[in-house]
Amino acid sequence: MNTKLRMGMIGGGKGSFIGAVHRIAANMDGLIELCCCALSSKPDIALESGKALFLPEERIYSGYEEMIEKESQLPEEKRMHFVSIVTPNHVHFKPAMMALERGFHVVIDKPIAFSLDEAKHLKQKVEETGLMLCLTHTYTGYPMVKQARKLVADGVFGQIRKIWVEYPQGWLSRLSEKDGNTQAEWRTDPAKSGKAGAMGDIGTHAANLAEYISGQKISKVCADINIVVPGRMLDDDGAALLKFDKGASGVLIASQVASGVENALTIKIHGEKGGIEWHQMEPNTLLVKWYDQPAQIYRTGNGYLDDVAKRNTRTPGGHPEGYLEAFANIYRNFAWALEAKLNGTEPREIDFPTVDDGVRGMAFIETVIASGQSDKKWLDFEI
Amino acid sequence: MNTKLRMGMIGGGKGSFIGAVHRIAANMDGLIELCCCALSSKPDIALESGKALFLPEERIYSGYEEMIEKESQLPEEKRMHFVSIVTPNHVHFKPAMMALERGFHVVIDKPIAFSLDEAKHLKQKVEETGLMLCLTHTYTGYPMVKQARKLVADGVFGQIRKIWVEYPQGWLSRLSEKDGNTQAEWRTDPAKSGKAGAMGDIGTHAANLAEYISGQKISKVCADINIVVPGRMLDDDGAALLKFDKGASGVLIASQVASGVENALTIKIHGEKGGIEWHQMEPNTLLVKWYDQPAQIYRTGNGYLDDVAKRNTRTPGGHPEGYLEAFANIYRNFAWALEAKLNGTEPREIDFPTVDDGVRGMAFIETVIASGQSDKKWLDFEI
Amino acid sequence: MNTKLRMGMIGGGKGSFIGAVHRIAANMDGLIELCCCALSSKPDIALESGKALFLPEERIYSGYEEMIEKESQLPEEKRMHFVSIVTPNHVHFKPAMMALERGFHVVIDKPIAFSLDEAKHLKQKVEETGLMLCLTHTYTGYPMVKQARKLVADGVFGQIRKIWVEYPQGWLSRLSEKDGNTQAEWRTDPAKSGKAGAMGDIGTHAANLAEYISGQKISKVCADINIVVPGRMLDDDGAALLKFDKGASGVLIASQVASGVENALTIKIHGEKGGIEWHQMEPNTLLVKWYDQPAQIYRTGNGYLDDVAKRNTRTPGGHPEGYLEAFANIYRNFAWALEAKLNGTEPREIDFPTVDDGVRGMAFIETVIASGQSDKKWLDFEI
Amino acid sequence: MNTKLRMGMIGGGKGSFIGAVHRIAANMDGLIELCCCALSSKPDIALESGKALFLPEERIYSGYEEMIEKESQLPEEKRMHFVSIVTPNHVHFKPAMMALERGFHVVIDKPIAFSLDEAKHLKQKVEETGLMLCLTHTYTGYPMVKQARKLVADGVFGQIRKIWVEYPQGWLSRLSEKDGNTQAEWRTDPAKSGKAGAMGDIGTHAANLAEYISGQKISKVCADINIVVPGRMLDDDGAALLKFDKGASGVLIASQVASGVENALTIKIHGEKGGIEWHQMEPNTLLVKWYDQPAQIYRTGNGYLDDVAKRNTRTPGGHPEGYLEAFANIYRNFAWALEAKLNGTEPREIDFPTVDDGVRGMAFIETVIASGQSDKKWLDFEI
């Protein structure tokens, strides 16, 4: 293939946070071009937003149905290869299903859907069609996260025993959804977000990260789920004791009322011989700890790292990478895999979250919320 | 009073970790002199250890009974003012009771006793006798901890909502108690430590610190208690979801199998308007966070601190203080209070842990262990 | 204007570090498209590299002369708007002059040229033509650097007294230029780099950053310039005592033999009332220190920042940005200014380094090298 | 010897900073007892201060002459073993000489004297008498500093090339000496401090630390010495380019006008293969960097450290030690050496600063101040 991959974006018009992030991530490596969009359900905003992105008017659609429909009628060398769905949770399932049905690959923001049931249907459709679905669990895109996963998988720490993951934010410390904050509005609205607030928005990231690095799956959950800010409709805070399938135990904290905290996702994993510690807010550093030797500071971009970390880095050591690069890694890895699929060649990298992560994420939401409502100590994590 | 306070030490002979710490702490400010000791239940070690401390042979006793007995017969201006009990947990209660009965004040290492029942008896005896009992919950001795408590009490963060405390260590990642490590031996032995291992040794510190800074008391507990290292007899790891009496919720983690971690007690507390973060391993820094303003770095020894922090600091800003100074604050505050009591004057400082903290600590141990064994989600924290 | 700006790239073919960085930076915001290139002086590499970027063969040129010549003959709506010159230093001047003469705007990697004399000619040409020249002094693109500059300019620290800037790297700790490292080869070769090695490559960044934040210009220099690794042809290490025009004094350190250091550009500036500290390797944090109040942690992406910091940020607080975003800010600010110039409107942002920074950078190189060779203590910084 | 060593203190009465520090340091390990004092030249303060330390009135002297005279007449088993001199610089030489002449060992705060000439006389007297003189260059007392020195001496970094040491403070950012600050008064007064202000007070620490860790001696100096705060009589700021005798070069910064900085002594040393970085304000961490491997975090109190670090530590890993423990190491090492000398046995530890460090410190002051006044670039460091 000697052209860029063509992306159509659904959602992400003016005022969206995550839409702009997706576009930057897709742009970064020059592998993908935005070719069409349905950026808003409001036609004038859809048009204005599309023009600001230099798209030709004929490919600025007023809704995802129109976009998928019309694009599917374009000649193959012109029509989009995949859609990127960056709408609120309640508008994930339908455009994703429609895109898959018309033969388009899908990138979708997390959580994958509004309910576990939707997620399972998506998985079924992906399997039926053989198309690719990429879920943007950003934090697994960081090179130091991949390095951590590799060290654990290589067994350098022995059997993993403890997995502690915390994801505190402070931005919902006030009732901002009544104060004109559009991000707060939909994320705290059960009709748009689903069963969970904080646990869906950031708890799923924490759970995904814990499983990604540790190579263990959550098997039991005992959760305390809270609405801390009076008047809020969904959980803005919670914590869960966890058991994992290969014997580790741990704790997951997710809170959006940690006033004064930005986005402090942190994970600590310990095995018999040592462990790792990683902080999303200083993502280029991975602390590697040892039972009886000095801890080591692994840093992005250095020659001593594993290949998987190197392949997911753009700059040499000391030239810090960040959130957008991690996001771009997911797009780039998806692009490389899609390119290979289209060309019938070996992909250079296949490490990106898929529909399976999406299904586990929805199951996590359902389990953790059910546990929060239960008097029973442990609930099984079931899909 | 124009003499130093005289201390008799019980336990803390050769090979003891905490005995040496107590002596350094008591020495530091020149207010206390070690006048007699019963450092070991083995007479030769007791003698050798006492001589190494330059004590005259006639006041190197071969057991605490002898020491308390003989000291009580000495003239008032010569005999010890208080005992310092630094033995393993199962040898706390008897010497403390005997000392109180003979009119000696008591300093005692935490946890205060072997069981909640013993602790309650000690409390009763303290109240009966009007004598002072000081419990060395070291971490409340740090100036930045006192500053944090003051900020919370002053209400600068509004209502406190979240209390997260974690106390990971890695030194019991292996079965060291079978390997000649004397610290490990008694701390993992139910006959010497009591019902709990990690939860008694360090979990009590974490719980005490959480209550000390937040001004809230734990009211409900939901715990996961583990023996991680095969062959161990007491918990070496655990975590608990917590509810507090004034509305906060939180998580407490205590683990001695966090391989590669030294002594990383950390606390984060958040209210509506901001919060604090403190790390014991870098204790001179207190992060103070705000909902919509830059976080601040409070540092030991600076003019902007509250008086209570200043009174518990010996050096100017940038001349780091540590664990021994925090420990010495507890001794010094106890010494100032005892001096005032003996002189009938106002104490300069009364901020040190007492028998009440001891009772709560034992109740914490009993509750958290019971919760770990229960299928019920929440157990009430009762004394 | 309702199209992207069109960029032609000179240099930056396979194996180039900085070429890829320029492309990512230009791509990031979707304002610029790469329309043509002359990526290498070797025709086959030029072709292969251009095709890998999905450029049509007719616009993959075999040299910059051809590119500038042919592009200038294309119709206005098709031809490039500006060139981006990412070649080694000795190939900056000619393509830049040629581009300016043919009416193309210029982006150029630092240092601007091979000699101060070349730099002055470029400045003259820019002034003659009225075209724009943007110099990619990356580190001034960081939002926290802009915030620091704003705080200083606002006078919150009072008169600035001390400026300490250090830029250590370790990658030239060995004689890598004899070992096949192409980056090392040209950067240590006087025929390609110019009079200076480390002082040109990174010393100029440090000097530029110091002047940018402090608002003061270096007026006197006393330098110690070293070739540390035997066999090297240009300085790989140096330090200079500095005097500034508005009364500050300071120190600049630049070294490429700080073995084990990645890219640790750090600046500390102090005035009467406080100061700032910034570390490039953790660029989203700006320490703001006060004479008698707790230091503050300013963080990228927060509401309390100045507008200039906010305009140069893409993500909310806690979603770390890095080197590529800083680089992209320079491209984006240049793009916004160029767009405004082409449209005859007000630019949204004009804060990017220009030919004046380029001239000062070359003067810095010449002064600091002359000082290193002089027995006189202070040399005047003259242009 | 089966008694504590007896110390007589000269200076350090009410209001003194360093006197209290010396007493705590001497107390800490129970090896030394304060037996007499001449704490102030004002008799009432001398008496009051002595009584507050529980000293008997007959050994609270009104001046050092009286103290040395009368103590020398006491029986050997009662009289002091050594004096500790903690007066301002201009009152170092006379009491030290008198003590040595009367057969007393000496501990003395740095800088050793008022002038290089005085220092040389002290050295001569020490050599004549065979008595011990210990200089309290605190920072060499830290275990991680000793670990760093050992790593360098072991050659693990190869040939040392770069030595950068900085010692910024902010406490003299204002003209506090006119504002009742007694510390500021004498330290900025040439009649009491000597030729240098900041360079004597903290520059000597920095120079001593650089030489201690690197094992190299400063051989050439090129200094910029400033009085930044108008009205001040001695330098409050300076920097020097340095050459060392075994080939390293470097920079030393010492400033007391770094507004908002506490006591941020920092040293970075690099050899061919790696290097170290140490920050006094977080002294239990030593960064050990490697050319092509992850950096390591050496931490006080761990089993992997060298014996010299272990011998100078009192607590296990993660129980932070600080400034007072470092200071106490100097006293303890002196005490151990003195005890061995008195007993005719092998000392357990001889690592403490001596009169030789004192002479080099005074030579540093004279050289750096002379360089500051010279137009010549480099001055030789001569004694």
Overview of this structure, please?
The first copy, chain A, contains twelve helices and 14 strands. With 383 residues, chain A is an alpha/beta fold. The first copy, chain A, folds into two domains: 5-135, NAD(P)-binding Rossmann-like Domain (Rossmann fold), CATH 3.40.50.720; 142-313 and 360-373, Dihydrodipicolinate Reductase, domain 2 (2-Layer Sandwich). In chain A, strands 13-12-11-10-6-9-8-7-14 form a nine-stranded mixed sheet. In chain A, strand 3 (82-85), helix 4 and strand 4 (105-108) form a beta-alpha-beta unit. In chain A, helix 5 packs antiparallel against helix 12 (355-373), helix 6 packs across helix 9 (198-214) and helix 9 (198-214) crosses helix 12. The longest helix of chain A is centred in the C-terminal third of the chain and has 21 residues, at 323-343. The model of chain A has no long low-confidence stretch (mean pLDDT 97). Chains in contact: A-B, A-C, A-D, B-C, B-D, C-D.
Radius of gyration of chain A: 21 Å
Mean pLDDT of chain A: 97
Low-pLDDT runs of chain A: none
- Find the CATH topology of the largest domain in chain A: Dihydrodipicolinate Reductase, domain 2
Largest sheet, spatial ordering of strands of chain A: 13-12-11-10-6-9-8-7-14
For this structure, the quaternary state is homotetramer
Which descriptors would you attach to this protein?
homotetramer, 383 residues, alpha/beta, Rossmann fold, Dihydrodipicolinate Reductase, domain 2, five-stranded parallel β-sheet, 12 helices, 21% strand
